[in-house]
């Protein structure tokens, strides 16, 4: 039996157009790569309007948000563990580094906003550790804008696997899904308060303000 591929390899295939699903405790859902690769939609734009520069987009993917912020004259940098994602972001004329958020990032403590869009609060499978890390990245009174699960009490730290169009499964990767109420509890212990919450279409966002 062949070894299961690394999830990053399957994700990068999705960035290049392959059909890929994320499979977790809640079932299977296609990766929204088509949306991530298009210009920002009205939901994205409402989030970006709240950004206070400079902005660090954690898990920037193909870079639609970083590119839009740059086009608006807002200093922004994307980071992603995927080489392909960084290439695609740079191909949009935006700035990006291949970097995990757990690693040192440029200008730590001087970012006005950290973006955790597209469910990226799940990165690493430990929302508390991720939000605490964001507290070290933003300025005093800085913002973290988080896209959360629509169900407010979601608190799922089950790993994900990625499934390609041939049914092959990747190795599991740490991930998490949290709702707004769950995030509020996590945020309080990490030096943040909830400044705002909003929903548009089927997407829900929470703005956290460092205190």
Characterise the protein shown here.
With 211 residues, this protein is an alpha/beta fold. It has a single domain (7-210), classed as 3-Layer(aba) Sandwich (Rossmann fold), CATH 3.40.50.150. The chain is 27% helix and 30% strand. The protein has seven helices and twelve strands. The chain has helices spanning 7-15, 33-37, 42-48, 64-71, 83-91, 127-137, 180-188; strands at residues 20-24, 27-30, 55-58, 76-80, 96-98, 111-116, 138-148, 155-156, 161-164, 177-178, 192-200, 203-210. The strands form three sheets. A seven-stranded mixed beta sheet has the order 5-4-3-6-7-12-11, sandwiched between helices. It is globular, with a radius of gyration of 16 Å. The mean pLDDT is 96.
List the helices and strands and how they pair.
Elements: H1 7-15, E1 20-24, E2 27-30, H2 33-37, H3 42-48, E3 55-58, H4 64-71, E4 76-80, H5 83-91, E5 96-98, E6 111-116, H6 127-137, E7 138-148, E8 155-156, E9 161-164, E10 177-178, H7 180-188, E11 192-200, E12 203-210
Which superfamily, in CATH terms, is the homologous superfamily?
Answer: Vaccinia Virus protein VP39
The CATH architecture would be 3-Layer(aba) Sandwich
The tally of structural domains comes to: 1
Helix content: 25-40%
Specify the structural class.
alpha/beta
What characteristic shape results from the CA principal axes? globular
Extract low-pLDDT stretches: none
Task: Give the DSSP E fraction (strand runs of 2 or more residues).
Answer: 25-35%
């Amino acid at each position: 039996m062949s070894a299961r591929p690394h999830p990053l390899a399957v994700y990068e295939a999705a960035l290049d157009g392959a059909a890929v699903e994320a499979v977790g405790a809640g079932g299977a859902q296609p990766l929204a790569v088509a949306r991530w690769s298009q210009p920002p939609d009205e939901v994205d734009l409402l989030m970006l309007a709240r950004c206070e520069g400079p902005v660090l987009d954690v898990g920037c993917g193909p870079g639609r948000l970083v590119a839009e912020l740059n086009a608006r004259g807002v200093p922004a940098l994307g980071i992603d563990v995927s080489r392909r994602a960084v290439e695609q972001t740079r191909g949009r004329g935006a700035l990006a580094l291949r970097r995990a958020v757990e690693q040192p990032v440029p200008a730590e403590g001087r970012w006005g906003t950290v973006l955790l869009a597209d469910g990226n609060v799940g990165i690493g499978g430990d929302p508390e550790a991720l939000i605490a890390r964001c507290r070290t990245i933003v300025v005093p009174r800085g913002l973290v804008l988080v896209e959360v699960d629509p169900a407010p009490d979601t608190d799922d730290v089950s790993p994900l696997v990625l499934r390609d169009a041939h049914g092959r499964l990747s190795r599991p990767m740490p991930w998490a899904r949290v709702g707004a109420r769950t995030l509020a509890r996590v945020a309080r212990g990490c030096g943040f308060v909830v400044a705002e919450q909003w929903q548009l279409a089927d997407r829900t966002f929470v703005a956290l303000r460092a205190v």
